[in-house]
Structures are given as C-alpha cells and as structure tokens.
Design a protein that fits this description.
Blueprint: E1 3-13, E2 22-38, E3 43-47, H1 61-70, E4 78-84, H2 95-110, H3 117-132, H4 140-145, E5 148-154, E6 157-162, E7 168-174, H5 180-185, H6 193-212, H7 215-221, H8 228-231, H9 238-247, E8 252-255, E9 262-266, H10 269-286, E10 290-296, E11 303-307
Parallel strand pairs: 3-4
Antiparallel strand pairs: 1-2, 1-11, 2-4, 2-5, 5-6, 7-9, 7-10, 8-9
Helix pairs in contact: 1-2, 1-3, 2-3, 6-7, 9-10
The structure holds L-homoserine (HSE).
L-homoserine (HSE) binds next to helix 5.
Length: about 300
C-alpha cells in the first residue's frame, strides 16, 4: 500500500460536565486526508482549503503528530499529506484533533498497523499541545476510537470506551472564532468543593446514564457548574439557545469543546430537526452568520475510505 485516504470526523469534547475527560464522535462534518509514502525523507503537507494553516511540519498539528510517530521508528519513511478540511479551525468541533488523529491513523495503515490505538492517541496529542498549549485527549480519543470515550487519565493514558443509546446531535456554529488556548486561559484555576461535588455527581450520572441507556439521567446530568459559566460569555446568544432548545425537548447540551459551537442531544430525530430551526432563528434575528448540523454519534471514528 502506497497511499491511503481517510475520513477524520468532528468530535464534541467535554460533553458539558466532563472537562478534558469526556468526548463523543460525530458522523458529520468530516475532514478528508490523503497520505502517501514517498521516497524522499521528511513530511510535506498541502491544504486543499483556504484556512491558511501552516504547512511546515513542526508548526502543523498533523505534522507534529507524524513527527512524534516517526520518532519511534528506526526506518523513517517520507510522507506526502494532503488535507481537505471541512471542520473549521476554531469551531470547537475538534478540528485540530481531526487533523492530528487522521494523519497518524493514515500513517499507521501505511506502515501495516504496527501501533495500537492508544499509541496513536499519544502521538496525536502532540497536535493538541501545539494547538492549545496543553495535551488533552477528549477530541483525539473519540476521533480515533469512535463513539463516546472517557479519558480517565492521560499520564499514563487510560481510555475507556462507553456504550451509549442512539442519540441525535444538533450543532450550531456561530461564525466567530474562539481559540482553545484563550478559552483555557480565562478559566479559574481553583474550584469550590461544593461545585466539585455537583460536577462529579453529574459526570458519574452522565456515564451511568449513557451505559444504562437512561435518557432522563443523561439529560439531568448535562450540567456544568465550573467551566460553562465562565466560557459561555464568549458565545453570543448561548443562554437563549440553551433555554429554547431545552423547552423544545432537547435532553440537554452546552458548549462544544471550547466553543463557539453549541450542541444539543435529542432522543428523537424530529426534536433534533426542531432544534436546528430554533438555532437558525436565534442567530438570524441577531445577524450573526452560522452553520448548523443535524447528525448522530458515530461509532466508527476515523475510517479508511480508499487505499492503493
Ligand atoms: N477539553 C478541551 C477544552 C477541549 O475544553 O479546552 C478543546 O477542544
């Protein structure tokens, strides 16, 4: 095999209450990446989009992830990488994770699947460090494993895949950029014990609700008393979107990753479609451009779609 094309999906980190430890994989949107082996050593990156992302490997999230992988190989192959991004950088939908995870999943295919999924997460986290200043795996892990993942620890890596009942996901991406590094900078470094107790009750409730398929418990647990009150001020109309969506039957939802996208989970497809209308109305009224998605949780993660 000389070349592989993969789909690297968007992800929702945190799932409201699980800051840095929970994430889920979406069917849509999805980046398309083609990686080819080259006789020339080194990594060459080309983007088929107009996001103006750096192509110098040490400054590119996919590049640093590949470099971390190459570090552990005696025979270092050359790579040509072509990236077509459909997940907008700075959207809160795991754009940097998709690039980093997609690159290492594709490279592993070309090398004959010599690395485990956990190794791939470890390499891809170098991309997150470059993008946000800190290693975290709550986009990378669901992007590679698919479904819903719990990252119990990153040092050492301890990833737990969680079962989940069928759910629809409605996402609105107001077209403003929130840099993850900025959205992390504004967070308080300490939390009150009473808030911590409430938050870990919610995390445990969410994990139990997902595994039992208990939609009411999932809904009750989608509450964040630590991060959301600080970050939501960066997102225009956040409270209004949440209020109206919950009134229309959403199980719950909140900031996707570090924002500005907002996501809502629903049990029924018709509810998910209604939420999209609500989101569109809210942003149209205030004159902010937006993009919406109605999708589902993807069990598959990053997939090979072609190789030759
Ligand atoms: N857990 C990270 C954060 C995800 O919320 O900062 C960033 O996509």
């Amino acid at each position: 095999m000389k070349s592989v094309t993969i789909h690297a999906p968007a992800t929702i980190a945190n799932i409201v209450c699980g800051f840095d430890i929970l994430g889920l994989c979406l069917h849509d949107p999805c980046d398309v990446m083609q990686l080819s082996l080259s006789d020339q050593p080194g990594i060459r990156i080309r983007h088929l989009d107009d996001h103006n992302l750096p192509v110098d490997p040490p400054r590119n999230v996919a590049g640093v992830a590949l470099l971390a992988m190459l570090d552990e190989l005696d025979n270092k192959p050359g790579f040509e990488l072509v990236i077509e991004k459909h997940i907008k950088p700075g959207s809160g939908l795991g754009s940097s994770a998709a690039s980093a995870a997609g690159a290492v999943v594709a490279a592993n295919r070309l090398l004959g699947d010599i690395f485990s999924k956990e190794d791939l997460v470890r390499f891809a986290m170098f991309g997150e460090k470059l993008a946000s200043g800190v290693k975290h795996a709550d986009n990378i892990a669901p992007c590679i494993y698919g479904g819903v993942t719990l990252i119990r620890s990153i040092f050492p890596l301890d990833i737990v895949t969680l079962s989940a009942p069928p759910m629809f996901v409605t996402v609105v991406h107001p077209q403003i950029e929130v840099k993850t590094s900025d959205a992390r900078q504004i967070l308080r470094k300490e939390v009150l014990l009473k808030d911590a107790i409430r938050q870990w009750g919610n995390i445990a409730g969410l994990v139990a609700g997902l595994m039992k398929g208990d939609y009411d418990l999932i809904g009750r647990s989608l509450e964040d008393v630590i991060i959301e009150p600080v970050r939501s001020i960066l997102i225009p109309q956040f409270d209004e979107v949440k209020r109206q969506c919950k009134a229309a039957g959403a199980l719950g939802g909140g900031i996707s990753g570090s924002g500005p996208s907002i996501f809502m989970l629903s049990k029924e497809e018709t509810t998910a479609a209604t939420l999209e209308i609500i989101m569109k109305d809210i942003y149209t009224k205030v004159g902010i451009d937006f993009k919406t998605y109605v999708t589902t949780v993807s069990a598959g993660g990053t997939k090979t779609i072609n190789n030759d």
